[in-house]
Amino acid sequence: MPTSPSHRREAAFTLTEMLVTVAVLAVLAVLAAALAGRVRTAAGKATAVTALRQTGTAIFSFATDQNGWLPPGPGKQGLWLSHHAYDQNHTLFGLIGPYLGTAPLDKPAPVKSAVSRNHLRISPDLLRPGSRSYLSIYSSSRRIELADGTRKEAFGWYGAYVNNEVKSALSLADLQNARDNGWKWLLQEADRSGGWSASWDASTFPEKPVHGDARHRLLTDGSVVQLSLTASHPK
User: Taking the model in full, what pTM does it have?
Assistant: First the structure.
């Protein structure tokens, strides 16, 4: 039996409707993927804030046990400007690891509690045992100005001596006397586009900001702030 014109029009309409539906679903899928990405990034930011807060608590706990001196303690050679790993003798996280519940390791390795989900997303092998992944996450402040105008690095000057004396890390008393001139911070997240302490270590950081539009900073009072990359902040 031949198909009537009305049946042909109905079939054509159904095909058009199907194409429109497919197109709408495709757009919705793109929007859902973009939304999911923003949700994951936001969740990663929350873990970054938690990581820095825990790190700050560990730093101040160390200082309390060291008569008020920040790592590495009084009279000791300063730490590297970049901090990524747990090496018991030479890095920030090696010294504060016990306060983070991390056991001593034979080889340098990142500390899980100091790594955000967004860092793990760009370097999924970062915490895997035996991994060769190397990623610096934080840089330390190079310039904390005290009330008398002197400037110090938060965790001492690495390899720097004056009159055969090590230029020590700051004390808790120093932090209380620090001037609020934009440098009252201890650690901040860094990447190759900014936030690192010195040009020679920039290549060890993530290529781009891992949170997209923000970096996080640990202040000298232990609080954590989010720095918008759309605003102007000291680097």
Answer: 0.77
